[in-house]
Structures are given as C-alpha cells and as structure tokens.
Amino acid sequence: MNAATETDRALVDRVAKGDRAAVRLLFMRHHARIYRFVARQTGSEMMADDITNEVFLELWRQAPGFEGRSEVSTWLLGIARFKALSSLRKKKEDWIDDDDAAQVPDSADTPEVVTMKEDKAAALRRFVDALPEEHRTVIDLAYYHGQSVTEIGEVLNIPVATVKTRMFYARKKLGEALKAAGYDRGWP
C-alpha cells in the first residue's frame, strides 16, 4: 500500500511504532483543517499555529493508546479543541475587562450599513461568530469542517442528542438573525 492510499488509522499504528514519516503524512493530511478549526476557536493565528503543532506532538505521544473508536480526524480535532480551550483559559487573565472595553469608542458601521456592504455568506459568518460558544462550535464543526453529528459529539465529548439540540437552537438563532437583517432563508 502506498502512502497516498494508506488509511489514517494505519498511519497512527505506524506512529505508535515510532515511525516519524507517518507523523509527517498525517500532518500533511490534517494540518490545514486543524489550523483553521483552532484559529476559529481562539481568534488568533499565532495561537492556532502553536496549538496545531502541539496537536501533532500529542499524536506522537498518544498514538500507542489510540483505540480507533473514532476517525483519526475526529480524534485530532478533539485534541485541538482541548488544547485551544486550555490556552484560552490561561490567556484569560490578559484579556481586557468589561469596563475598559466600554471606554473604547465603537467605530463600527451600523448593522444596516454592514449588511449592505457584505454579501449573505459574510453576514452569515458574522452571525455564526455572534452565537454562544456551544452553538458556534457545533455549527463550525458541522458546516466549516464537515463533521457528522456523531463526530461532533466525540470531539466535544457530549451526547449526540445534545449536539442535535445545540444545532437546532443555533440554526434557529441564525435564521432569526438573517431575517432581522433583511435576508430570506433561501440562498442567495
């Protein structure tokens, strides 16, 4: 079997045996997806770069314990999410407090002007960003990373029913936001 057709699971088995080339192959296959996911979670390209590299170091360490109960991509996204949340918790004390933030003048356009300037996809992305973290994460994993409901449950370590409930409320809020901004729910 050549490297292009070798499954991710087979590559993890090779990593577990100390094969560095297998780590490089998995890195090439999954780096961009993990980087984009972490960048969305943290809002920082620098953090995303560091965390993505940490994910592959963790792959090297944890490969012998990988049981194959989920897809390798799902497992890696779960590691990435944990590392992103941990980094955000550590960084939290450096964030600006609410009183200081209230003093910063708001130079943003009104919602009507922003909506007129952007197309529907950009507006939708903005509405996704405004969702509570638990809803934003399920939408991000489903629509921007192509994860199934089951895979999302594995990444977030929550039951499938909870994923479905969060997805329902997230879609409802997005629909309301689109309607309020003057968009109908159809595309475009």
UniProtKB/TrEMBL annotation:
UniProt keywords, alphabetically: Sigma factor, Transcription, Transcription regulation
Q: Which Pfam families match?
A: Sigma70_r2 (PF04542), Sigma70_r4_2 (PF08281)
Q: Does the keyword Ribonucleoprotein apply?
A: no
InterPro entries assigned to the protein according to its UniProt record, in alphabetical order: RNA_pol_sigma-70-like, RNA_pol_sigma-70_dom, RNA_pol_sigma70_r2, RNA_pol_sigma70_r4_t2, RNA_pol_sigma_r2, RNA_pol_sigma_r3/r4-like, WH-like_DNA-bd_sf
Q: Which SUPFAM superfamilies match?
A: Sigma2 domain of RNA polymerase sigma factors, Sigma3 and sigma4 domains of RNA polymerase sigma factors
Keyword Transcription regulation assigned: yes
- Domain of life, per the record? Bacteria
RNA polymerase sigma factor 70 region 4 type domain segment(s): 123-174
Outline the extent of the RNA polymerase sigma-70 region domain. 26-92
State the similarity comment: Belongs to the sigma-70 factor family. ECF subfamily.
| Protein's name according to its UniProt entry | RNA polymerase sigma-70 factor (ECF subfamily)
Q: Which organism is it from?
A: Mesorhizobium shonense
